Structures are given as structure tokens and as C-alpha cells.
Amino acid sequence: MAEVVGSHDLLLVTLDTLRHDVAAELAAAGRIPNLARHLPGGVWEKRHAPGSFTYASHQAMFAGFLPTPAAPGPHPRLFAARFAGSETTADGTFVFDTPDLVSGLAAEGYRTVCVGGVGFFNRQGALGSVLPGMFQESHWEPEFGVASPTSFDEQVTRAEKVVAELPHEQRLFLFVNVSALHQPNWFHTPGATREAGDSRATHAAALEYVDRHIGRLFAAASSRRRCFAIVCSDHGTTYGDDGYTGHRLGHEAVWTVPYAHFFLEPGAS
After folding, report:
1. pLDDT tens digits for range 138-174
2. 174 with 222: CB under 8 angstroms?
3. What proportions of the chain, in percent to the nearest 5, are helix, strand and coil?
4. C-alpha to C-alpha distance for 266 and 43, rounded to whole angstroms
5. Cα angle at 258 between 256 and 261, to 5 degrees?
């Protein structure tokens, strides 16, 4: 990353609330072809989330603590703040001297842009302004939020506009928090009803919906130059697993998340 930063555009996509088991099953079954074609070996890497809900996890990721490989470490990190005694800062790590990765990339000349999704990015109150406030430019509308059946295609349209308006020479760090997987997601299954509610199956249908549109996002992110992309979940969620529902709790379905990083060549879709 020490060589990538400064020469490439950067894309970070958090598929908010996506479970690892659902993501892995859909990739293996060929149900998310647009994502799977970019996954190394066609499979998601199994990792552990840095937090059990959106706010905590993103605070950690923006400090350089991406989801950790689900195997004994230490595991060298792509990004890290400079501090003495770090055991996961390696020769290739991009090291920043600011409080967070976003401002660290801004200091390197990047335009930092957030396209928010869930409520922690809606800027409708003090708490919802903390994470998007790290960025030089942030976008959120109700159409991007969890209650919108077309949230992701609306988010992608905004991202396309952002990229199109940037000067070609301007490096970009684009962050997109995808809200479609988060509850409520029942409306992504044809014929489903609000009364039937959300389930593991509707969660999977939401990921299929995201897959249908993510090629547009990849195309925009790589339209100007080679782009380094990270696509991962910030945490999972439960649908009655062992009696649990939701997240912000210590269940395997919450802590285990899918992760991938890869390069997008110019013109990728």
C-alpha cells in the first residue's frame, strides 16, 4: 500500500451487516457473479470484524484496523497510524501521521468522498455526523437509507456523478456504505410482505440486488486510472440464530465477515 497510495485511486465499500456465511454461499452458487469475478479465487476471505455494529466498526476501519484474517496472526495491515510498538505495521504498510486514514489520505492529496447509507452517515444529528465529518465531501439522502428498496442504485448514481465531476489529475478516495443488506430487507424478495419480515433469505436477496448494480460502481471507480478496491462487511447480523436477533452482540454470525481486496483496471465493470 505504501506504493499504491499516491498512484492509484482507492475505493472502500462496506456491505453493511453482510454475514460471511450468506456471502460465501451465494458466491459458491453463482448468485453474485459481478462480485465473484473480482474475488481472489472466486471466494470471499473469512475475517473477523473490528466491531459488532456500524459505528464501532467504522471508527476502527477508518483508523486502519480493517477486518482481521480469521487465523492466528499477527497480520500485517494495509494502513496504520504511526505509533510505537505496532506489531502489524510492516514494510509495505501505508503509515499516516494523522488521527485517521481519511485525513491521512487527504494529506497525500486525495479527494475524500463519502456516500453514506445507514443512519450513522445521515448527518441528521451530532452522532450521524461524526463518520461522514471525517471526509472532505459527504453525501446522504433518504433514498440511500435502509428503508429504500432502491438504495444502492441511488448511491451508485451519486458516486458516478462525483467521479465525473472530478478533474482527471485529482486522486480519489471513495467510500460507500451500502445500506441494502441492513434490516429492513424483506422488500428485496419478490412477493414478500412487511408482515413476514426479514430473514436470512431476504438478506441473501439483498446481496443479489447489490450485485446487479455493483459493476457500475466499479466502472466509475476505475474510469480514470487503476483503482485499488476493498469490499467487506463491517459486521454480520442474526436472524434467530441461537435465539439472537440483530447485532451489537457477541455471536459468530456477527463477528465473522466476508472480505476481499483487488485491483480494478481502467474500464472495469
Report:
1. 999 999 999 999 999 999 999 999 999 999 999 999 9
2. no
3. 35, 20, 45
4. 23
5. 140
Amino acid identity of residue 182, one-letter, is: H
Q: 98-116 burial, b if ≥16 CB within 10 A, otherwise e?
A: eebbbbbbbeeebbbbbbb
For the segment 7-46, what is each residue's pLDDT rounded down to a tens digit?
999 999 999 999 999 999 999 999 999 999 999 999 999 9
Cα(175)–Cα(137) distance, integer angstroms? 10
Alpha helices in 108-172 (DSSP H): 127-130, 151-165
Q: What CATH fold (topology level) applies to the domain 9-264? A: Alkaline Phosphatase, subunit A (3.40.720)
Beta-bridge partners for 190? none
Q: Give CA–CA dist 87/27, Å, rounded.
A: 33
DSSP three-state, residue 175? strand
